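Recall the central idea of this unit: under ordinary conditions, the amino acid sequence of a chain determines the structure it adopts. In this exercise we apply that idea directly, starting from the sequence alone.
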Amino acid sequence: MATIKQIAAKAGVSAATVSRVLNNDLSLSVSEDTRGRIFRIAEELGYKPSRLRKLKQEEHLSRQQIGLLMWSTLEDERDDPYFSSIRRGIELRCEELGITIAKVMRGRGGTELAPCHGLDGLIVVGSLHVEDVLALYSNPERIVFVNHAEGPPSSDSVKLNFEAAMEEALSYLQALGHIRIAYAGGEETVHRLTVSTENETVTDSRRNRYRAFMSERGLYRSEYDLVTEWSSGGGYSGMRKLLDLNERPTACLMGSDPMAVGGLRALHEAGLEVPNDMSLIGFDDIEISAYLSPPLTTVRAYTELMGRTSVQLLLERIQGREAAIHATVNTSFIVRESCGPGM
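Accordingly, the structure predicted from this sequence is:
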């Protein structure tokens, strides 16, 4: 590899000038012709210091144009920040890397989406049918599925470790002495982008772990296993059903924090105290969770990290990685004041 002295000799300047130009010393008074000549000679002689490599990488990244396909609408994101946080992570990481998000598509708009094969890659957020995604963008090796039920093995994916999160939350309630534990959550839907095709419903991984955990201990009761909407309204109606049971549970784990907000309201309306009459756990750790009355014990989902990770995985594919990676992001269990001893 060439040295700074060799570059200086060929450029007809001092070694100090070459060093300062290659290190982008803006205080140096040198003509643009001289600056350009130094960079050109350095390139010709094969001089590749880390800064030149970085400049080339940044230039390459700035030419990349990716697409973002989300099932959720902006209204959905306002009601539940789970997916907006994933999107924010994607946008922030792209901004840091200089990658352009050239196209943003929303699958829930009710209209057919046009193919986008000219992109360098695609990030899909939410459970969208793989067949429909590939009809929009036909290269599965340049697609990253985020929070998806099951993508093709040749595509990268990022998901939360729902199973371990549920295990920790349920173990916590059991350690407090609870045996009558309910779970209220929505269904996992694999959405179709073609309006004439029916969506597919699969069992939510949180519910699967709940059923297994309770069954393994001989504690599972079907009346405590509620399917409701992924919303505050769904949490409210689900809690009302639990309170109408002859033997209500002493604890309830909700599939999302917005659902827990609705459940908490139903308990307050019934004149019941949390955690004295019912322990309550949410999922996601949205900002409002710490300011409820009482502050909500919940599972912290690192959704922004999921978004950032998806960009990193796609970048690696663009740069030539061949094997698919299926990344799982762990959670943290946040203990606050909404859980107490079992009765």
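The mean pLDDT is 88.
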